[in-house]
Amino acid sequence: MLDFLQKNTFSIVYTFFLGLMPIFASSSISYWLIMHEQEVQHFKILQWVLVYVASCFSMAFALTPTTFIALLSGYFLAWNAFAPIAISYWVASYLGFKVAKLIDGGRFLNKLSEKPKVKQVLDNLQKDEFKIILLARLSPVLPFAVTNVLFSFSGTKLKNFLTAGFIGMLPRTILSIWLGTQAQEIRKLIEHPSQGSGIQFFVFGLILVSMLGLGYFIKKAF
């Protein structure tokens, strides 16, 4: 175990970093948006293009949560935000996946595969990787950037990762944009992003389906 940690220290630290960063970055952005809401309301097309280019990198490297970007997009752009959000998610997924692969270089998977039982479990999981990726993306509580890294480290096929990930993100993306369109004030949207029992029930449903599905496939792999 110690040998595994020593050889994968940077990969593990990078993963924890991606899990913590959204909390700090989104707080700073929220404060700035509350203070400059009127300016953002008058952004031109070129400015929004730059915003979404920046969001590709910020989501890929855990500076901003994906739900946070979708909520704000819905607030400022309504349903016009759907296409740029979808493209940004896809690009962010690709960036996060590729950068993680460059950082790790296959060491994480190779080290795990040294143990025959672990290798067998990983091989079994890869048979259902499309469904597993879809279920992981469905849950609003699994960090976007962290799952990018974990799927990259585990040797997931890029095509399956991008396709299943995009499909899995759709329900919560549509919900977040809709919530943004319903908000009257940006402060209330940021402080209370999911008010209403119906919305909370839907979010809980997504989490439940994701957890039960992932649990089933993990149990099946073992």
From TrEMBL:
Entry GO CC: plasma membrane
VTT domain mapped to chain residues: 65-181
Subcellular location: Cell membrane
Family: Belongs to the TVP38/TMEM64 family.
Domain of life where this protein originates: Bacteria
UniProt keyword terms in alphabetical order: Cell membrane, Membrane, Transmembrane, Transmembrane helix
Species the sequence originates in: Arcicella rosea
Membrane topology term: Multi-pass membrane protein
Pfam family, one: VTT_dom
Transmembrane segments: 12-34, 46-71, 77-97, 134-155, 161-180, 201-218
Keyword Transmembrane listed: yes
Protein name: TVP38/TMEM64 family membrane protein
Xref: InterPro entries: TMEM64, VTT_dom
PANTHER family: GOLGI APPARATUS MEMBRANE PROTEIN TVP38-RELATED
